[in-house]
Structure formats: C-alpha cells, structure tokens
Amino acid sequence: MYLLDTFALICLIGAPDRMLPTARRxxxxxxxxxxxxxxxxxxxxxKVKSGKLDRPHVxxxxxxxxxxxxxxxxxxxxxxxxxQLPLHHKDPFDRMLIAQARCEQLRLVTPDKLLxxxxxxxxxx
Length: 125
What we know:
Shape: globular
Number of strands: 5
CATH topology: Rossmann fold
Number of domains: 1
Distance between the termini: 15 Å
Radius of gyration: 14 Å
CATH class: Alpha Beta
Strand content: 5-15%
Oligomer: single chain
Strand order of the largest sheet: 3-2-1-4-5
Order of helices and strands: EHHEHHEHHEE
CATH superfamily: 5'-nuclease
C-alpha cells in the first residue's frame, strides 16, 4: 500500500513523465491501494497562493478519486507522531505524510531520499 507525497500526486495526475518510470509503472500496475492525503491538497493550495506553484488544470480531488486513489484522513494520532519525529526534516507537510505512512504502515512515494531517515518505507519517484 502506498501514500503519495505531493510531488508524486501532481505527477501522476498531470505530469507522469516527471516521475521515474519504474515508480510510475509500479504504481499504475499495482493492485495495492494508493492513498493521497488532505496534506497534499493543503500544500498545493498554500504553494499556489504563494506563487510557488501553478494551480493544477484539473479538479485535484476528483481526478485523484477517479484514478482510484483513496483519501487518507488525518488523525490525532498522526499529529502526535508528526510532532514527535526527530528534526531531520523541518517541512511540516512532509513530516505529517511521514507520520501517516508510519502509523498506517504505508510506503511513502516521494523523490526525497532524506525521508528514509525516519524509518518509513519509501518508493523513490
């Protein structure tokens, strides 16, 4: 089972060629569930608002759902784990995704090798 980080979600929805071919193939051919998080949507909205990212040309949530991705809600337990993580990585979005992946025993799909320092399984994309 997989949890997409924001880069992976954006790539799969609108720019699949930006993702490593092996990761893209593994995700599109897998029968295991793939999840996205409200954290992805929050991060995208903040980056759009600050001018760091162009608004996706599709309905993000609707397209992710149509592609078969399931939404993984954020829980209080996720917040506890995120807050207790070592400060190897200070990005609050990534820290919450790491916590969600750890709590739910999901493999985090990300291009960020640094996230492996948290003992979470990673599929580099």
